[in-house]
C-alpha cells in the first residue's frame, strides 16, 4: 500500500492525495516558511497544508514556484491545501476569501479547499460557496476541518457534494474512533492535524519502547500508526532534520500488538480547541 513519501490515497471524487504532507501552521511568513516548504519539496514531499489563518500563503506560493523550478517538479505533482477562516465564512465572503488565497498563493487552482471550523449558522452557506468553487475547477477537491459527526450530518442533509476530507485533531491520545468510522461509512477521508499531540507525546514511554524495536523515534511510530490506520497525516516542522525524519516511515511496519498498544493510549484528550465549543 505505502511504498514511499509520494504514496497516495484516492479521494471520493477520484483525486489522488499524498498520505503524508507538511503542515505549516506557525511557520513564519517570509524566509522561514519559504525555506521550510522548499526543503520539504526537495526531500520528496508533495503535499503542503496551509490556511488563510496561518498568514503565510504568500510564502508558500513563493516556495512552490521556486521549488518547481529548482527541482523539476510540475504543478500537477504537488498537492496544495488551504482553508477559509471563520471570519470570512458565509457565501459571498467565502468566494472573496478564496480568490484572496489563490492570489496570495499565486496559483490557478488549489488541490483541496477546506472549511476551517464549523461556524454555527454559517458553515452551510460556506459549503455552498465551496461547491461553486469546485464546480468551476478552481479547487480539485473540497472538504472540511474540525467537523464532528453531527456537523457532517447537518451539512450533507442539504449539500450536493460530499466532503472529500475531514481534517481533525487526531493522535494516540485522541484517536477519534467513532468519527473515523462514520467518515469511512460516508467515503470521507480523515486527515490528522497535530498528529504528534503538540509534541507532548514524544516522551511517551510506550511509544518510545515501540520505536526502539525498529530504531525509530516516538514521532515516527505515531506517523506510521496514522498511515496504518489509513489516516492522512501532516506533521509540522521548520527543522530540516525533523522534516526528513518525519518522512522516514516507509521502511518498517508496526505489528498488530504495536497497534493495540498505541490504540490503548486514547484518552479523548484534546490539545486544541473543541469543535463544539470554540469562540474564534
Automatic annotation (TrEMBL):
The keyword RNA-binding does not apply. Keywords: NADP, Oxidoreductase. Residues 28-266 form the NADP-dependent oxidoreductase domain. CDD domains: AKR_AKR5G1-3 (cd19157). Pfam families: Aldo_ket_red. It comes from the Bacteria. Signal peptide: none annotated. Belongs to the aldo/keto reductase family. This is Aldo/keto reductase. It comes from Paenibacillus puldeungensis.
Amino acid at each position: 500500500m505505502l511504498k514511499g513519501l509520494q504514496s497516495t490515497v484516492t479521494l471520493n471524487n477520484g483525486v489522488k492525495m499524498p498520505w503524508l504532507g507538511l503542515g505549516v501552521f506557525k511557520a513564519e511568513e517570509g524566509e522561514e516558511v519559504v525555506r521550510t516548504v522548499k526543503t520539504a519539496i526537495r526531500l520528496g514531499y508533495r503535499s503542503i497544508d496551509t490556511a488563510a489563518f496561518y498568514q503565510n500563503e504568500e510564502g508558500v506560493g513563493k516556495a512552490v514556484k521556486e521549488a518547481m523550478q529548482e527541482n523539476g517538479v510540475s504543478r500537477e505533482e504537488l498537492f496544495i491545501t488551504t482553508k477559509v477562516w471563520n471570519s470570512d465564512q458565509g457565501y459571498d465572503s467565502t468566494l472573496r476569501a478564496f480568490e484572496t488565497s489563490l492570489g496570495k498563493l499565486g496559483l490557478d487552482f488549489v488541490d483541496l479547499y477546506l472549511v476551517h471550523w464549523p461556524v454555527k449558522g454559517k458553515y452551510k452557506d460556506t459549503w455552498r460557496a465551496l461547491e461553486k468553487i469546485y464546480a468551476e475547477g478552481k479547487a480539485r477537491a473540497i472538504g472540511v476541518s474540525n467537523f464532528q459527526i453531527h456537523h457532517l450530518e447537518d451539512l450533507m442533509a442539504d449539500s450536493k457534494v460530499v466532503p472529500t476530507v475531514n481534517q481533525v485533531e487526531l493522535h494516540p491520545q485522541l484517536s477519534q474512533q467513532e468519527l473515523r468510522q462514520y467518515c469511512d461509512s460516508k467515503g470521507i477521508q480523515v486527515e490528522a492535524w497535530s498528529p504528534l499531540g503538540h509534541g507532548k507525546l514524544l516522551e511517551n514511554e510506550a511509544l518510545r519502547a515501540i520505536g526502539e524495536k525498529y530504531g525509530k523515534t516516538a514521532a515516527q511510530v505515531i506517523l506510521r500508526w496514522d498511515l496504518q490506520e489509513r489516516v492522512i497525516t501532516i506533521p509540522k516542522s521548520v527543522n530540516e532534520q525533523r522534516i526528513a525524519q518525519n518522512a522516514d516511515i516507509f521502511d518498517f511496519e508496526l505489528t498488530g500488538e504495536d497497534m493495540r498498544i498505541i490504540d490503548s493510549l486514547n484518552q479523548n484528550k484534546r490539545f486544541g480547541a473543541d469543535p463544539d465549543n470554540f469562540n474564534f
